[in-house]
Each structure stands twice: as structure tokens, then as C-alpha cells.
Amino acid sequence: MTTDRPGNARHETSDKILFLHVHYNLPGVWDEEQLHYYRSRDIEKLRNTLHTTIDHLLDLFSGSWELGECFALCDYPSPEDSLDDEEKAVFRSGVSSDDLTDNLDDLWGSDTFSGYRALILHKIRTGLIEDFRAAVDLFNMVMECGISADSCTKAYCQVTLEDAGDFAPRFLEWLSRDESFTANRLILDVLRRQVDRPGWPRDDLDLGKFLLLVDYYASILEERYG
């Protein structure tokens, strides 16, 4: 687990920081949680981390003994209905020419997976922040489809890319369920009341307090996963 820290948190503002939170478990194979945050000028670092992480997870889950067949046979949402013409062109580039059909909804599940994968990674390689968010949404959709196809599995995978206002409430709720923070319930409760206020974070001090907690949690992850 690695965390990209933006330096002195007191000089950061909320609209300059994005939080990348990754948590997944493939039972018996891999279990990991990652937390990174980036300033707007660190977009290339974010791009590289996001691309590497998502590419790895797509390989890991779709190629696993437990879930590989689920991803290959999954009934994914219709690319014909959900993608625009430019996206369909990128989608098609990821599918073998021998398997392409005029109607993308007629593809086998494994080909649809390959098409979505090509589109997800393309958005990350060539896009900006909103494209990264769209890629994350598509990735989570693909992972949910593949994993949910096996009703018995305990596997899960989620990636989020959020600004402070969206990330903080979810993160604090996440920590409230972590046994490592049992002794810090009072601090969490105080912070949760603060971040629930309209307009949070109001200033650098608000955000700086929160980043101290993020850094502390990152140190726990480093010990937990190495």
C-alpha cells in the first residue's frame, strides 16, 4: 500500500485534492486496500496509478480460477444502449476482429468484457478527471457484473475517485467499522458531525484535520498489507 501525500496539508484546498480508494478481496489469492490522494497538478501520477491499478484488477479477477468463467459468460449491460459512437469505436478496438458483430449486444460475454476493458483503459490513458471518473464507474460496473454472477463467492472489489466533500463522509463511515479505530470513536464522531455540515470543508484548516486522519489510516494500511 502506498499513499501519495500532497505535502503540507495546511496549504491545500478541497478543490485541489482527489482521493483514490481501492479495496478488494479475491479469497485465497489477494486481499488489499489502497488509499492515495493527489493535487490537481499531480494528474499524471493519478493517471499512472489508476491505469496500473485497474489493469491489474481486471487481470486478477477475470483470470482467476474462481471467477474467470463468470467474467467470460457474464451478461453485461448493453454497450449499444449505453455508449456513444466514439465510445463504441474504442470498445470495438478491444474485440478480436474475428468475433466482431454489427450489433455489439450479440457478442459473447468474454468479448464484451474485452471491449469494456479497452474503453476503460482508453479513458484513463487519454482523458482528464471526468474521464477518470467515468472509467471508474465503468470498471465498478464490470466488476460487479462478474463477481455477482457467482452467488457463492465472498470476493469483492471497489474503486472510488472522489473529492473531499464526497469522500470524507463515506471514509469516516468506513473507519467506524474498522476494529483498529475502536479507541478513536469520539474523534470519528466529532469529525463526522463536521463533515456533515453543508459546505464542508470550509477552509484549509478543515481539510488539514481530515488529511491527518487519512495519513494515520494510511500508516495502518502500510502495517497491515506491507
Structure, described:
54% of the residues lie in helices and 12% in strands. By secondary structure, the protein is an alpha+beta fold. A hairpin with a 3-residue loop joins strand 1 and strand 2 (30-39).
Present the secondary structure layout:
Layout: E1 17-26, E2 30-39, H1 43-62, H2 68-73, H3 79-82, H4 85-93, H5 109-126, H6 129-148, E3 156-163, H7 164-176, H8 185-195, H9 204-225
Antiparallel strand pairs: 1-2, 1-3
| Biggest beta sheet summary | 3 strands, antiparallel
> Radius of gyration, rounded?
19 Å
Strand arrangement in the largest pleated sheet:
2-1-3
Please report the distance between the alpha carbons of the first and last residues.
Answer: 7 Å
Portion of residues in beta strands equals 5-15%
**Contiguous uncertain segments of 5+ residues:** 1-12
Structural class by SSE content: alpha+beta
**How does the overall form come out from the CA principal axes?**
globular
How would you spell out the order of helices and strands?
EEHHHHHHEHHH
Specify the helix fraction band: 40-55%
Query: Average pLDDT value?
Result: 89
Beta strand count: 3
What's this model, at a glance?
This protein has helices at 43-62, 68-73, 79-82, 85-93, 109-126, 129-148, 164-176, 185-195, 204-225; strands at residues 17-26, 30-39, 156-163. By secondary structure, the chain is α+β, with helices and mostly antiparallel strands.
Tags for this model:
single chain, 226 residues, alpha+beta, 9 helices, 3 strands
